[in-house]
Write a structure and sequence with these properties.
The complex is a heterodimer of chains A (319) and B (371).
Chain A lengths: L1 H30 L7 H19 L2 H25 L4 H27 L7 H6 L14 H6 L3 H19 L1 H11 L1 H6 L4 H27 L13 H11 L4 H20 L9 H21 L21
Helix pairs in contact in A: 1-7, 1-10, 1-11, 1-12, 2-3, 2-4, 2-10, 2-11, 3-4, 3-10, 7-8, 7-12, 11-12, 11-13, 12-13
Chain B lengths: L5 H4 L7 E5 L5 H25 L4 H13 L8 H25 L7 H18 L5 H30 L3 H21 L3 E3 L2 E4 L10 E2 L2 E2 L1 H18 L1 H11 L1 H6 L4 H28 L10 H11 L4 H25 L5 H21 E5 L7
Antiparallel strand pairs in B: 1-6, 2-3, 4-5
Classes of the chains: A mainly alpha (319), B mainly alpha (371).
């Protein structure tokens, strides 16, 4: 029983990791006041680019960079439209999702038909993203498995979340970023370069979402390209997660693994214990997120709410 | 756009590029600008197709062929299929425009379509002995009610607690989706071991007129009704005032809460009817694919058309042609039908960018002294 519980937590961490990447990415964007509904699309772009680079180069670093770069390109389109050309954020984000999903399926289809079969990354590449083994540490019972036996990307996601948390809480530029997200015109008046900060955060955030996508094609799908894609709504769960963790990157670490646990719960709770339909397990993250959303609005909690400038186009010339 | 930063601007230095509000462009100029954006999008889409190693002209030709040229036996088959795709998208886009006119970000079109579908299917499954026309009217009302309630829910929280409607409606899409999954795998399952709901009785199916189910008549009527409601009625006027400024609406003595709730109910109800029509006219059952993304696509269509019902009809047609034609493009050209997503995305990107140039222009160099 104990072992099964550890296995369950282990599975939760594995399936929570892509969500953590995407959540951190989306927090970066929302903190500068841009609700990017293109997470799903950027994850697909990252999923394909990461897979393609892994297939061609067999280098995990290049695969991650490719995923980051391609998704960041998608985010750049979003940034140009919403920041410089003042386009509506919701419509632009949704369009980015449509575009990104279409683009990766088209490219994946072209790749598959060129190779004439289901492409899969090489054994050598797969081994490079295998779970690590640190002597002694990894062998500690229970804790070793939970903390020191994951694939490298799991650690990357947690490190990124911690860096992101320090960035907001402890650095001046992070403070500026929060000012931009809360009240761009005051930030502008204080001499902060609003446009530049928005661009950097949106683009880097998009790239991180892309790594989350690459995780799904390289690890979740075992390094194979699925014709129908592998992301399947994770991007939307990430948008939900951002609300669930109240825009805090440090809470996101726990939040992502909780949501990951929901994903794995169904495989670990025996029907004899709790017999509820699978659909309810899958619905749970969205129901909880809605509850969090309602509770924060009822409590009028400024601290846990969306940045005040989020979703609003800032236009200095129009004041 | 660094040059806009106050630091770089210095004390008296002018930024190199400035953005100024344009004088109001004439209707022709705006139209010209948009046609230009559309052409650019087609060219950009062509470049994309070309980089995928295919001939863009072939691709566009095949899309048009796929959308319009039918089989030998039924020359109208493709057009009918295109219209079948267009009907739910048109209805949902029209429904969403109610909410958007009020600046209420209803991203929950999917959930409202699903709710309408569920309510309508309930009667189709359990009251199938009723005479056809009566059953269909009940399903229609049920669909509207289901969608309306689904739309009302986030509105209640919005007016009561100020809960963010964009995020709330977004979450409802997934909650509603998993309700269908639950119904498929449990209470409404047709055969044990296989997660799907039974086909509805012939009683509960819409008849066809001109080769397309009669949902199209409703859609066409709806265009006119929405136009009149939004532009020529008191309630429509109230919606636009609330959309422009809630404070103004309050000051004018309007009951803002009531208007928001009413409008979101209508918005959701129309989407719900789209769900009922999809069940009774196309799918003949309820499945998780019932909304199939129209809730999201409708948002972009309504926005692209700037909430004008007639333009919505036109944009819906363009999107449906792309959608239907892409299948032929895949089978005959070997370019994945998902290319529609890319093409729709590119068109939208260009239009999103274009709107800026309708309102503003870049000016190089120095400001005039009196400016």
């Amino acid at each position: 029983m104990n072992n099964m519980f550890i296995n369950f937590l282990y599975a939760a961490i594995l399936s929570g990791t892509p969500l953590l990447f995407a959540t951190v990415g989306e927090i970066l964007s929302e903190k500068v006041g841009n609700l990017n509904l293109g997470v799903e699309g950027m994850m697909w772009m990252g999923a394909f680019a990461g897979f393609f680079a892994a297939y061609k180069t067999e280098s995990p670093i290049l695969a991650i960079l490719a995923a980051f770069g391609f998704a960041a390109l998608g985010a750049l389109i979003y940034a140009i439209l919403t920041v410089s050309l003042k386009a509506n954020q919701n419509v632009t984000g949704l369009t980015l999702t449509t575009f990104g999903i279409g683009l990766s399926i088209v490219m994946g289809y072209a790749m598959t038909s060129k190779i004439g079969g289901a492409p899969k990354v090489s054994e050598k590449f797969a081994a490079s993203l295998n779970h690590i083994h640190i002597p002694i540490l990894s062998d500690i019972p229970y804790i070793g498995k939970l903390l020191f036996q994951h694939n490298p990307l799991v650690y990357l996601s947690v490190i990124l979340a911690i860096i992101c948390a320090i960035y907001y809480k402890r650095t001046r530029i992070g403070l500026n970023v929060r000012a931009v997200g809360e009240n761009p015109s005051s930030a502008d008046a204080a001499g902060i370069n609003v446009t530049l900060l928005k661009y950097i955060n949106i683009v880097v955030g998009g790239g991180i979402c892309g790594i989350g996508g690459a995780y799904m094609s390289l690890i979740t799908a075992n390094g194979s390209w699925q014709p129908g894609g592998i992301v399947n709504g994770s991007g939307w769960i990430a948008v939900a997660l951002v609300i669930f963790v109240s825009w805090s990157p440090s809470k996101a670490i726990l939040g992502a693994f909780i949501f990951g646990a929901f994903n794995s719960l169904v495989n670990y709770v025996p029907a004899s214990v709790i017999d509820i339909p699978i659909a309810f397990y899958q619905m749970l993250p969205f129901v909880l997120t809605t509850l969090v959303l309602i509770i924060t609005s009822v409590r009028k909690s400024r601290e846990n709410a969306q940045p005040a400038g989020c979703g609003v186009t800032y236009f200095r010339e129009e004041r | 756009m660094n040059n806009k930063s106050p630091v770089l601007m210095g004390n008296s230095q002018e930024p190199f590029v400035r953005i100024v509000k344009r004088k109001e462009l004439t209707k022709q100029q705006v139209l010209l600008l948009r046609v230009f954006a559309f052409l650019l999008a087609i060219i950009a889409g062509g470049i994309f197709i070309w980089t995928m190693g295919k001939n863009p002209i072939d691709a566009y030709r095949l899309i048009l062929k796929g959308a319009f040229v039918g089989s030998k036996r039924n020359p109208l088959s493709s057009i009918q299929a295109t219209i079948n795709i267009a009907i739910p998208l048109l209805i949902v886009s029209l429904g969403l425009s109610f909410a958007f006119k009020m600046k209420f970000w209803n991203i929950g079109g999917e959930s409202q379509v699903i709710a309408g579908g569920i309510f309508a299917t309930y009667f189709a499954l359990y009251y199938s002995t009723l005479p056809g026309p009566i059953l269909l009217v009940i399903m229609f009302v049920a669909g509207a009610l289901g969608g309306g309630l689904m739309g009302l829910l986030p509105a209640i929280f919005k007016v009561r607690f100020g809960t963010n409607e964009t995020l709330f409606t977004l979450m409802l899409n997934y909650i509603a989706l998993y309700v269908i999954r639950y119904l498929e795998s449990g209470p409404w399952r047709a055969t044990p071991g296989f997660a799907s709901i039974a086909q509805i009785d012939t009683n509960a199916r819409l008849t066809h007129l001109g080769g397309v189910h009669i949902g199209w008549i409703f859609a066409v009527l709806l265009i006119a009704v929405v136009y009149i409601y939004l532009n020529h009625t008191k309630q429509g006027y109230e919606i636009s005032v609330v959309g422009e400024s809630q404070a103004t609406a309050h000051y004018a003595g309007m009951n803002v809460k009531k208007i928001v709730l009413r409008t979101m109910f209508i918005s959701g109800a129309i989407c719900g009817i789209a769900g009922m029509i999809q069940v009774a006219g196309i799918d003949y059952t309820l499945s998780a694919g019932i909304a199939g993304g129209v809730g999201f696509k409708g948002i972009t269509v309504a926005w692209l058309a700037q909430l004008n019902p007639f333009v919505i009809t036109f944009v819906t047609a363009v999107f449906s042609i792309l959608e239907k034609g892409s299948g032929v493009m895949q089978s005959e050209l070997g370019l994945s039908s998902a290319g529609t997503g890319v093409l729709q995305g590119i068109i939208l990107f260009f239009f999103l960018g274009c709107e800026f140039f309708v309102r503003y222009s870049f000016v190089l160099g120095k400001r005039r002294a009196n400016a």
